[in-house]
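In this supplementary section we document a worked example of the pipeline. Step one takes a protein sequence of length 292 as its only input; no multiple sequence alignment statistics are reported here. Step two produces a three-dimensional model, which step three serialises into structure tokens for compact storage. The input and output of this example are shown verbatim.
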Amino acid sequence: MKLHTLRRAVIGTVAAAATALALTACASGAANSGATGSADDNPYGLITPGQIRVASLGDSKPYTFTDESGEFTGFDVELFTDVAHRIGIDDVVFTGQDFSGLLAAVANGQFDVGVAAIGITEERKQTVDFSDGYLAGYLTVMASPDADIADEGDLDGKRLGVVQGTLQEAYAVKNFTDTELVRFPDNNAAISAVVSGAVDAHFLDYEAAKEYAEQYGLENAIDIPSFDAPAGFAIAKGNDAFKDALNEALHEAMEDGTWKELYQKWFPGSPMPDQYLPSDEQTPTPSESPTE
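The serialised model returned by step three reads:
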């Protein structure tokens, strides 16, 4: 009797172990199947499959800003939304950030991409990757007409506002060495300081300066070309599939005239960068004279 009991116990233990192994194998197979399916469903490595989370700015007209209803709009917003649609994604969520922390938020995975007329520089490439460029323009020193600022030399000894982390800040640090720089989190705060007299001028983007000039009676005291740092979409390093897809869609938007249409809408009267127009509208490059 005891022998039969022992035999049944051993058989039961072996059967239980076999069942456990089978269940483990099934679970492992299911997990592997799910991982493969997940990769197929999320080819661009997005935080949430089928959705692009965008770090942006809420006060940078006409590039990215929130309208009266709190919705994001502007040139960059409409262009990126079009580009996202071309790669099959219509769920695009824009979230406002301080510019100083925007690239870090993309790099550490809080957002899939940064979209805010972000100039491509070698220093920024240490933190994130960029799409191809899609915009180039000017930097502007904005001041009161009574500030007596007409050229860069007039900034010596003055208090100049800059938004922390921008191209303007980097340019000012390098070139306005006799100017006291006052850093702000955004353009609105800096322009308020100009109006109140807390600073003598503010250094910002040419296009963004237009509305402030009309609203506060300020003027573009100095305009500085910035074509060496075109704007691009910021992407976390290593996500080449996402970057390549954005680049292909971006060039499609340029070639079919979508980029031109949006530029004319948001920058009326501004010079149009030739390199982003459809190829049949670009100015031909003069051929070199043959050597003799």
